[in-house]
Fold each of these.
Amino acid sequence: MESLDRLTAHLKTRLVDLNKAKEEGVKIVGYTPGGYLPEELVLASEAIPVCLVRGGDHSVVELAGAYICRWIDTFCRAQIGYGISGDDPYYSIIDLLAIPITDNHIRAISDILDYNTDLDIFPFGVPHMKEEATLRYYKFGITKLKTRLEELTGVEITDTKLREAITLCNRERELLRDISLMRRSELLLLSSRDFVSLCHGSLVADKKVMVGILESLCQELKEQKAPTNKAPRILLTGSTLAIGDYRVLDLIDNAGGMVVIEDFAEGIRPYWEEVKPDGDLMQSLADCYFRRRVPPAWFRPGKERLDFLIKLAKDYKVNGVIWYQLMYRESYKTESYYFPDRLKREFGVPMLTLESDYGPAETEPMRTRIETFVETIRR
Amino acid sequence: MANYYDRVLNLCGFEDEEIKKEKPRIDKAFQKLEIGPEDMERAEEWVTKYHDIDLVGVKKILRAWLLELFDLVLARDEGKKIVYYGFPSIEGPGMAIKTAAGEGVYCSCPDVILCHTLGQIFNKINPVLEAAERGGLPPGHGLCSLQQVRNGGMAKGIIPVPDLITGSSYYCDMGSKADELLHEKYGHKAIYVDGSMDSRWGEFPDYPAEKVEFLGGQLNKLFATVKELFGIEITRQLWDKAMATGIDLARAIYQLEQLLSADPMPISSAEVELAMMLAAASTGRSMTEGPEAINRLCQDVKQRVEKGIGVVEKGAPVVMIFLPSFSDPSIAHMMEEAGLAIRVIPSSLALSVDKPTPQPTLGEEIADRQLKMGAYHSSFGVVKIVENAINALNADGLLWTYLYNCRPMALTSHFLKKWVEENTRVPTLALEMDIYDSRSYSAGTLRTKVEAFAEMLRARKVAAKA
């Protein structure tokens, strides 16, 4: 599809464009994925937000071994490896690394990069429960971030600028949501790999360019004559789906399965909710990013997310769920024990749990398990 | 007629008369615990080999732990309401609940009790861990073994299903998720006291007022839930009363810690750990039996100091350990056999903070104090606690026994050693271990590393003298 080609071309030169912008004095603000960093604040401060969401490479995880033990989530160790080694060029161009502290694994990135590198780190807290008090604390965190961004860029984040950024980001979310909802159809409109590429692209691309690409893609999808999808329909969920960590998607595809919806704490942009562009805008951001956002597994209790997964499974008429988690992320591991029973009871479909440390030796056992699962749900 | 457990209980400080009187409770508790005659030989060997039962004080402390175990196991049968808290957790709320509710409520950290009894006395914690591995917390995933002990204890019916669980959501993610798993299985009420360790490196001891408001509000939420469930109100006055209840125990522990500066080290760190952790796990027997038991241990230790008796050679390198094993005393003995005088981080040091700033609510007052102490503030807060403790103890080395399956500890694995060595010049061994489950981290597996470290410290001492 032409729009996807445009995205690929844009991302190919993205680093060059960012370096050029930096030379011109524009600040680049990196952040860890997870959907708790309101990009609107960064855009309103006239800086460029860049999500640091690369993964899938075990050699970088090994690099982190000199700075932290192996019992921390694989993706987070990868970020430590990238941050210290400079193997991910995005780490070298950022002026500030904003880290919403969601759990102890993300805290490890913050502490270890803060201690071992010269990166300018700005952590802020994401509580683990939805209450008035926790919402207040989250708002306190993003308000501190607003002040820090104003200091960094020398630009005052006015309501006008913020509202403009909210409108732009809402449009991006709306388009991603529209495309995602199209995949409820029986038609084979867009592969999961392509949809994931859109999500990943949106975390790095220029926001206006991205919105343009999504708009034209929406149009293309509406106009195309797609064949009917006969493959078993799969909901893919888990902790992190990083840029470069495409093995699980490819294996499902090769096995004849079709991922029709994804839900990840990190790597898939939360696109279901929009920021209300009126009233106290900081409150609106907190309301959307924290209160209305379907939380990841490190929220306690995790019922809201598990209810949402069952709803997604029903809405997208899936035949099975694949739960893909990275090693040592204990919140996901714990939920993966009791969720399959609920899923079976309430929707009657099975679940396959896969774990990865980005190791190359995992591929073939993973392939066998996925092939068996897809065969099982095909019948 | 003699009971199969008389000898072991005698070794653990029970008098015959007491055993006779408590027999129905002991029988019932042991039945639930699946402890029978076949377990006694192993328990006797374990207790005599790894606990200093020549000291009356040690026997009394073991007795206090066993009485707490019986109270825990029988709490539901004896008609009590049950509250469990987690480890580690903010000190005080458990004690306050117990003080307010009195005998009608049983309140403790059950997993820590099982480690110190099934582990330290009966050497039989593994079946509990295995039950948890079958019940949602499988091996090989770095899941917290203390949570496995709780999960397995409930799965085996050893510890009763509580009326309320309160999780330390301000510190670790695993405790709250593991409690959530138990809630899914048993349906009891779980309340998570949330927080966020979101400080920058180097920020401690500073923190914003909003952090106090957040954590304090969560503690107030816990107190409100307790009021709703049990009809008891945790007021400032009651809090002060609860804290006063613990003063005797705190004084006894402080006295013990002072005696440990003797050279040679008069008792094993295994016994010190037994004494110090009683307060963390129990709000019952720690108060009724704890002060007398530890005061008696102090007398015993004083006599040893006067006679120059020690568990290691005079002049042995003094090494601070952050957390010794809760369930396996053979690890502490292995370290001492390697020639190290092991000092547990003094609790008195951790508590010695400035008076809290006046706060509008009790919860905020507690939160403010906790943030000042450091452990729940940030990794840098932990680093500073360790640095201060090393300086206070004038330690020759640090054994940074980080728990591999505890994320807040595991993330310190490398930088803590680096920081301590750069800032105190004290050699540090970052020793990956599991203080609750020693199946993969036994004394045998750790011995070579500890011996090499001990050898290096001795060489340093010799070189310093020369």
Note: Chain B touches chain A through 55 residues (CB under 8 Å).
Amino acid sequence: MAFRARHLLGIEHLAPEDIRTVLDLAERYVELNRRTVKRTDALAGMTQINMFFENSTRTQASFELAGKRLGADVMNMAVAQSSVKKGETLIDTAMTLNAMHPDLLVVRHGNSGAVNLLAEKVNCAVLNAGDGKHEHPTQALLDALTIRRAKGRLQRLTVAICGDIAHSRVARSNLILLGKMENRVRLIAPPTLMPAGVAEFGCEVFDDMRAGLEGADVVMMLRLQKERMDGGFIPSEREYFHRYGLDAEKLSYAKEDAIVMHPGPMNRGVEIDGTLADDINRSVIQDQVEMGVAVRMACMDLLAQNLRAERGRAATEGTYV
Amino acid sequence: MTLFFENARLIDPETLTQKLGNVIVDGDRIAAIGEMAAPGDAEIIECHGKCLAPGIVDWGVKIGEPGERHRESFRSAGLAAAAGGVTTIIARPDTNPAIDTPEILEFVTRRAQESAPVRIRHMAALTKARAGREMTEIGFLQDAGAVAFSDCEHVTADTKVLSRAFSYARSLDALVICHPQDPGLSKGAAVTSGKFASLRGLPGVSPMAERMGLDRDMGLVEMTGARYHADQVTCARTLPALERAKTNGLDVTAGISIHHLTLNEFDVGDYRTFFKLTPPLRPETDRMAMVEAVASGLIDVICSMHTPADEESKRLPFEEAASGAVALETFLPAAMRLYHAGALSLPQLFRAMSLNPAKRLGLPQGRLAEGAPADLVLFDPDAPFLLDRFKLHSKSKNTPFDGQRMEGKVLATFVAGVQVYRAGQ
């Protein structure tokens, strides 16, 4: 079996085989999550701590639910409000938690690379729940599972990623994952929201949305990350919606059966038309949320298996659904 | 006291030659160079064909006095310099408080003299508190011994303030040193923009910011006639602007740090903060262009840009971590990488590390010639070693070369005819 990593810090270090392993296991958790009794004991007795240095409702809830359904003891540290405000450094916070012997640490932080730094200092498995503008691996994996289920495959697809690419860790992780799985990726954004050097990533770059959407199988919209901007990236939200907001007219340039995705939370009327977001024939946004829990369960299950193996216990003890 | 260096490979940066020979040092001066025999009363130093060069004049060393002595003191910097073959430190004024009055300058001059085994000269701030609003007392500071005027990496955005400081400095024939960087474009940047920055999700600055910074400064130099030195020119795109300024007869020189000549942006790897520098490390193509520019003489000076940072300020997420690296002691071994790569000859290296900085600052050092000060470094360019940062003399250990294989060891360092360092001691 693939996926031998100690931590899940990004998609960059995963092989295609690792990605398939996560998605296959996640499929089984999708089934479990649809039952009335959703509980398994894959993480029984283990402690999971969620450390969100940036506020998050959806991702934190998804990780919490995933941990609880796997039988872990889950704790949410409200770090955004507490010790950091008193001047404690990231490493000290991590060391303090480490002394309490957690098994899984789920971390979100506002600085790129902060989760890598933390992972060097603790002896449990670290799961990156988003670091700055760097990576958000579980988001890319849940998007991949959503695409695979909707399209029946995860290769040779044309995927258009549109919007605020520059400030988006979701875009980076998706770009890397989709590339590894041999898809054609297009990035669509105004030049001010396009990171430098992206053309060298092996994707096509567009500033005209209609041209970029032409013939796409998947349209992935991104949220305009107003909180990460320090002013003046776009002239106004209404002009942005006019040129880069997804509506039925622009979507008509994509394939007839193209699916519409959004990592949430959505700014309706800024990057996506509300009616389109709710169109059950095109939008898979709710599926993404559902897949999120299953994918996070799969990731944590695999990391826990590796942790057990590393700690010298029987690697097969209570791991499967 | 007479010293006789026997059978040394003499590195002469003035004639760009090297040959085997002997050197007689009488007192604090070089008395003779050639094939002659040892005078009767001389202490003989057998060099076994190793290299003897004028000691390094390291322009732009940050020392934490006053204000941040836990990072580096005159004593620790002086010891590191001696161990690195640096015989003259040109200290930066970006201390806390900044060296912007003759009183502070006199204080640090005295502290340096009592504590350090090597020569230390000081630059003073160009504007008060390096804030870019009012010029300092350039005349008084010059009288108190300031060799040049710089606000270090602070770029004065107000060109009116800067033009006044430039023209006032010109009236005193004072050298001004600026950090060519457009302050708007470079705001908040941690790395050079491009594929690597985007992959790592780090805020980047376009290399164009450096060129725009130099272009602006060249306009002011043309306007005021100031004597100008760019502390670090690190991008290929900046070179044509520098060349044009020199061709047009402006009194302009430029430097670069040894790190920008030996490392590139990929060395940052997975957010290694010891590789976070100001300006940030550049792509390999830029590094290669810079090495060529040093070889051709377009870039005049190589410096260490020694910037001590304590562990806490580096153990942070990359964007928040302190910028800069210590380099006094690793300067010469790092420079040997360029020699072993065949990019620069030893005389070319010492032209940029010793001769040119001394000449530009009006100091008599930097030459291997009769009558020159006996500031010398004896080194073996081929001796290999593994760098252990905890063995460095600096109080701060933030070197990007930790754990790396290096070639080039300083065997002995002499300042004014007095031995201040011997390997193994």
Note: The radius of gyration of chain B is 21 Å.
